[in-house]
Write a structure and sequence with these properties.
The protein is α/β, with parallel strands linked by helices. The protein contains 8 helices and 7 strands, in the order βαβαβαβαβαβαααβ. The protein has one domain: Rossmann fold, CATH 3.40.50.720. Helix content is 44%, strand content 15%. The protein has a 7-stranded parallel β-sheet, with helices on both faces. The model has no long low-confidence stretch (mean pLDDT 96). Keywords: Oxidoreductase. Pfam families: adh_short_C2.
Length: 252
């Protein structure tokens, strides 16, 4: 019997795939049978990740915020590995700072990386997916796309934008069988989150207290969700934002 969750013979691109949630997304896609190319700014981290991930993992050094590189990145991957079947727009940055102190440059830098880059890369990849009448794009959203979280105005704005962009692109490209979905992680145990929470115990207790499952998630939970959305098991799913949050968004 065919396995609807199989990603055999699929080529995936995961931005920011060398660490954190991106690393676990990459690992889960590999375990499902895909060949995965990861990108990031730090070559050493990418090299280390690929050595650990195995022979079906490859890397290209790329800064997604430099939009002048976007078209060339897609061309390089297509020429070297074949057309991209799955794009995961995972790369992102954050900054916790009172809104009144955030400069225009700081705000713009986060919007550029988290939102503008996701659109530009989706557009260039879609140019190769639409003629083939197949493709999956997965954006990484956040609980910040659902809540008004203090001290992260730019990040919240960028993830709210990702929520809207996901729906708009799904509507635009659905007729070409190119599916566009988002995953909205809840509070996931990564090094970044642990650092942030350890410096703000009130926020940690608030996050945990309103999560019905009474625990933080693991990066693999996001990876498994990505496999589902990228696979034929989700063949009629597009335009959704899948919360992987232990019920945080509906907790009281």
């Amino acid at each position: 019997m065919n396995n609807p969750f199989s990603l055999n013979n699929k080529i995936a691109l995961v931005t920011g795939g060398g660490s954190g949630i991106g690393y676990d997304i990459t690992k889960c896609l590999l375990d499902a049978g895909a060949k995965v190319i990861i990108t990031g700014r730090r070559q050493n981290m990418l090299e280390t990740a690929v050595k650990t991930l195995g022979s079906n993992a490859h890397f290209i050094v790329n800064d997604v915020s430099d939009l002048s590189q976007t078209e060339a990145l897609v061309t390089e991957i297509t020429n070297t590995f074949g057309p991209i079947d799955i794009l995961v727009n995972n790369a992102g940055i954050n900054m916790k700072k009172p809104a009144i102190e955030v400069t225009d440059e700081e705000f713009g830098r986060i919007i550029q990386t988290n939102l503008n880059a996701a659109f530009a890369l989706s557009r260039e990849v879609a140019k190769t997916m639409i003629p083939r009448k197949t493709g999956n794009i997965i954006n990484i959203s956040s609980m910040a796309g659902y809540y008004g979280i203090d001290r992260v105005p730019a990040y919240t704005a960028s993830k709210s934008g990702i929520e809207g962009l996901t729906k708009a692109l799904a509507s635009d490209w659905g007729k070409h069988n190119v599916r566009v979905n988002a995953i909205a992680p809840g509070f996931i145990e990564t090094a970044m989150m642990q650092t942030a929470m350890s410096s703000d115990p009130d926020r940690m207790n608030k996050a945990l207290g309103r999560t019905p499952m009474a625990k933080f998630g693991l990066p693999v939970d996001i990876g498994n969700a990505a496999v589902f959305l990228a696979s034929d098991a989700a063949a009629y799913v597009t335009g959704v934002s899948l919360r992987v949050d232990g019920g945080n968004a509906i907790g009281f």
